[in-house]
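One such shown below:
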Amino acid sequence: MHEEDFEDEEHDYGPSRSEQRREALAVLDLAMKLVGESDARLQQIPMDEDLLALVIASKKITSQIARKRQIHFLAKQMRRQDDEALQLIRAALEHDKAEGRREAQALHEVEYWRDKLVDDGDEALSELLEKHPHADRQHLRQLARNAHQERLKNKPPHAYRELFRELRTLLTAPGDSN
């Protein structure tokens, strides 16, 4: 009996049932993420045409139960793909998420400078111009002052928004190191 146990240890049975279930659930999660993407974004993700058509068809289903059933079918079809194809899809979705975080960070920086210019005035403007010497000092100063006056008089934030647009253009300009 001991010899049979030894032979069983040498024999590879493949992944355990729990591991297979985890992999299937990961593919199901990937299928749900794909269905949540826009059609334009789906065109950018590297996948074969049949799978793309199935994802787009899944997006069109509005009934909750039918959609769930369709997503499970999509996941089943995706599990038939090789691991490399699924990794490419995951990588494309992660790249998109990282790009979104970078864009959000850039907008937070613009909001920071806008609020700082409105609150601190010329002192903040000097600090900004040290980092971005090509900026239009006079225009930014005027917008910051107008935004400050709008805030004091409880007026609609026209200059505040215009200042945001100017700063976004300045801070997200191509070739800008900051």
